[in-house]
Design goal:
By secondary structure, the chain is an alpha/beta fold. It has helices at about 80-90, 100-105, 110-115, 135-145, 160-165, 175-190, 210-220, 240-250, 265-275, 285, 290-300, 310-325, 330-345, 350-355, 365-375, and strands spanning about 40-45, 60, 65, 70, 95-100, 125-130, 150-155, 195-200, 225, 255-260, 280, 305.
């Protein structure tokens, strides 16, 4: 595919709000069995091959997540454009939006049109809400349902003090009764399945995840994702996967394991060691949006391919074109710089490219210079 063939969002009839094309990139997401043309088959781990029944998936009410893989919610990263990037790279499971403050949405501090927008090719998708007021959370959940979400997810894991000081995010793990009231209000407000993403607790001495999880299950929550660290740990230390197995044994609803999956082999290792129903990948997916396809391939065949330099280049250009098309320009430029660093890590000559483009003031100029660099590297026409 020539990147110039890409069809990023175009302006709608009123010319006010960029609309989202159902085909952001020219070709549909490849599937593991047919995706080999641009793949280099390098990694081989026959001992990890699990046959076709590997990663069978799980059910959230009427929503089937199959295979059982999910893109983790990440503020500033899992916007519509990046969620479509992972779809383009062959991800077939669930995608989750970045955290959306229920208060911010209802009071208009967050542009609901921008943050709740869902493209036709994103499903199944969960929109993630934060908040500690049951009624406001219920109202925001109804907005998510109205925008076409398949699942509403509640954040009970965010460690940031600007979130926890309002008893939101991980602070809800310190008050099981409030966590249950919030979840119950959301469950009753919508006809969609409601999930919760949580941590282990506030700190080593306050490991409340099992108690909170049982209370959430009683309120009708359809599934849980566990980032196996405490709030106090932030992102330090190691995720404790043994806790994922503990949670799986404690509840009957699907449990998704999360934390420190860096490559496909680690993903399968977490799955096999804990018996969890699904796997959620965050940071590794930003560096390598093909990771979901690779996990599937590894589970089915014992090996997986790597994208070529050309494939990676086209992906970056297509993503940035869509960021520009959906705007606004300041946000597009900010996100392009964020993703450029992650996407080009390890590419030959990328450090000087990032240095040169870091000072770009306008997204179109950055895209042009990037295209030029890729052409000179022989990666783009
Ligand atoms: C930049 C960044 C933003 C994040 N934003 C959110 C968020 O909005 N909601 C949430 O539940 N978790 C958020 N997380 C946590 C991730 O979803 C995930 O639980 C964590 O990164 C561990 O998974 P990983 O090791 O696969 O990255 C964020 C993590 C990062 C690195």
């Amino acid at each position: 595919m020539n990147h110039e063939d890409a069809k990023p969002g175009s302006m709608d009839r009123e010319g006010m709000r960029p609309s989202v094309s159902s085909t952001p990139f020219a070709s549909p997401a490849p599937r593991p069995s047919t995706a080999r043309s641009e793949y280099e088959w390098g990694v081989n781990s026959p001992s990890l091959a699990g046959g076709c029944s590997a990663l069978p998936g799980y059910r959230l009410g009427p929503v089937r997540v199959s295979p059982g893989l999910a893109l983790a919610p990440m503020a500033g990263l899992t916007d519509l454009t990046f969620r479509r990037v992972v779809r383009r790279c062959g991800h077939r499971g669930l995608v989750v939006s970045e955290i959306l403050s229920s208060e911010g949405l209802i009071r208009g501090r967050l542009d609901a049109e921008e943050y709740l927008r869902i493209a036709p090719d994103e499903h199944p998708i969960a929109l993630q809400l934060s908040g500690a007021d049951p009624e406001r959370m219920a109202e925001a959940a109804r907005w998510c349902e109205g925008e076409g979400a398949d699942v509403v997810d509640i954040n009970m894991g965010c460690p940031a003090s600007k979130v926890t000081k309002g008893f939101c995010g991980a602070a809800l793990l310190r008050d099981t009764a409030l966590a249950a009231r919030v979840a119950g209000a959301v469950v009753r407000a919508v006809s969609l399945p409601v999930t919760v993403k949580m941590r282990l607790g506030w700190s080593e001495s306050e490991m409340t995840f099992l108690e909170v999880a049982r209370a959430l299950e009683s309120e009708g929550v359809a599934g849980l994702a566990l980032h196996a660290r405490t709030r106090k740990q932030g992102y330090s230390g190691e995720a404790d996967w043994g806790r994922v197995a503990q949670l799986k044994a404690a509840v009957s609803i699907p449990v998704v394991g999360n934390g420190d999956i860096r490559d496909p082999a680690q993903a399968l290792s977490l799955w096999r060691r804990t018996g969890c129903d699904g796997l959620m990948v965050g940071r590794a997916a930003v560096k390598n949006p093909w990771i979901f396809r690779q996990i599937e391939e590894l589970a089915m065949t014992g090996s997986y391919g790597q994208p070529s330099f050309e494939e990676r280049s086209r992906l970056i250009l297509g993503h940035f074109e869509e960021l520009i098309a959906l705007g606004p320009p300041g946000l597009a430029l900010h996100r392009m710089k964020t993703f450029l660093g992650k996407y080009t890590a390890g590419m030959p000559g990328a450090a000087s490219l990032r240095g040169a483009l870091g000072s770009a003031k306008e997204p179109g100029a950055l895209l042009e210079a990037l295209g030029e660099w890729l052409r000179e590297s022989g990666a783009a026409p």
